[in-house]
Amino acid sequence: MIKESVLNIGFDDTDSPTGMCTTFLAYKIVDLLQKQKTEFLDFPKLIRFNPNIPWKTRGNGAVSLKIKTRNPSKIKNQIKNLVSKYSDIKNGANPGLVFFESDAIPSEFTKFSNLALWQLINRNDAKKLVKKFNLDFFYEGNGQGLVGAISAIGYDFHDHTLELLSYRKKTKFGTKRKISVNSVKEMQEKTFPYTFNSFDVKKDRVLITPHGPDPVFYGIRGENVNSLVDATKILKSNEKLDGYMIFKSNQGTGDHLKNELNFETMKPYASGTLNGIVSSIPKIVKGGHVFFTIISKNHEFWCAVYKETGLSTIASNLIIGDDISIGGGVRKASKNFPRIINLEFIKILNLKKNLISSNPLCKKCNKKMKSKGQNQGFQCVICGKKNSKKIIVEIPRQLKKQLYIPKISAHRHLTRPLQRTGLINKDSKFDKTLSWFCVYRT
To answer: So what's the pLDDT on residue 442?
Structure first.
């Protein structure tokens, strides 16, 4: 009897800014495998890696699948064919596909994946790992997709969310998506707190539908399968969809900001967090963006807060001496600035008292005294009472000791929403009945 083996399948970079989608390829692969009665061992994994990589498309996501099979060679060939078919190579996609036959994932895969979350990884490092482990692989273009393919297999969940992605029929690709705004509002209200970032109430804006030509109609993010499936029953659209698939993901976990930025790790495009003391008065520039510096471990770092994030008001109210924690991505140096951290959150750890010196108050008239000249003291212009010294006044701070994150419409895929603060989800039970996958047979 032929023995079953565990096969891990990782792939990435099959899309381009003009079309296709790596998750849609995963949907097609799962559709093919389930028709062959393949046993799935876990949800498809959609892992979002470092969002600051300059050549990424949209959310920098890679996908992996874990299955049991008696015929890995046949499945590998089928998947290679699908990768070629559903990759937008003519418009710049550089697909990478990796197979690893084992239930146990090497620690080197996991280390590689952890680095891909917050650093810039050279594709040659991926090729070296492929060679070292003698992996069965496939790529086109420059092989950049191998980085995400290996990383998706090696990713180790400490917290997770789920995302239900609903796909369009091919005839609708590139056309405008139409969905009932009121149904999205209702869905968010009825499924809260088990779904998140579906609708921006302040801007009256739907957040679940992308705007590009890719095959995704909408994506609902949440904590469990039942809530996501229930959400689809509330949404209303006239468009007949092809089906949906639920991915296990690191979206909404803040995963890319777990690592510490310092003088050594502050490399272009790196992501991470940094604790420090505000060392310059925040400067508001044209467009409403705010720049300031912080001191951390005897090194000074520039920080930028863009108006679109909704954090610019918070940043502009910082003063020298405030103790803060910040997180974001490093922008490479330009002729005007050294490397800058583009902020994704500001956490106030301790606020310095805002003290200013002021002319003394006349206790009798309750009016500020006027200076009589340098070193000549102060005098009330009403009653003539005199005083020799200025007084120190504390100005109330507009900030609180708390975490400030961007407004909801400016969240990145990995941004941890406030409703997930302190939440660690390790409990999504995998259902082998395929409740997480559906093709509408119409």
So the answer is: 62
- What residues pair up with 19 in beta bridges, in sequence order? 16
> CA nearest 153: which of 126, 183, 187, 176?
126
The rounded mean pLDDT for the chain is 93
The pLDDT, as a whole number, for residue 75 is 95
- Residue 121 near residue 112, CB atoms below 8 Å: yes
Question: Hunting for tokens 């998506």 — which residue is that?
Answer: 177
- What is the model's pLDDT at position 375? 81
∠ CA 149-154-158 to the nearest 5 degrees? 125
In Å, what is the CA distance from 137 to each residue of 8, 40, 222?
A: 12, 21, 33
Positions in the chain short of pLDDT 50? none
Same-domain status, 21 and 148: yes
Write out the H or E segment, with its range, that includes residue 149. helix 145-154
Beta bridge partners of 218: 166
Strands 45-48 and 241-249: parallel
Please, are residues 341 and 270 in contact by the beta-carbon 8 Å criterion? no
Strands 205-206, 199-200: parallel, antiparallel or unpaired by DSSP?
antiparallel
Task: Give the residue from 395, 382, 437 showing the smallest Cα distance to 30.
Answer: 437
Question: Does pTM surpass 0.90?
Answer: yes
- With vertex at residue 348, the alpha carbon angle to CA 331 and CA 404, rounded to the nearest 5 degrees, is 65
Structural domain of 170: 161-249
pLDDT of residue 1: 56
Classify the C-alpha dihedral 224-229-235-239 as positive or negative.
positive
- Quote helix, strand, coil % in the chain, to nearest 5: 25, 30, 45
Q: Which among 69, 76, 102 has a CA at the least distance from the CA of 3?
A: 69
Are 122 and 174 found together in one domain? no
Vertex 361: Cα angle to 355 and 362 (nearest 5): 170
48 and 100 fall within a common domain: yes
Question: Which residue, among 274, 366, 284, 282, has the nearest Cα to 323 in the 3D structure?
Answer: 274
> Over the stretch 296-321, which tens digit does the pLDDT of each residue have?
999 999 999 999 999 999 999 999 99
138: left (phi over 0), alpha (psi -120 to 50) or beta: beta
260 shares a domain with 408: yes
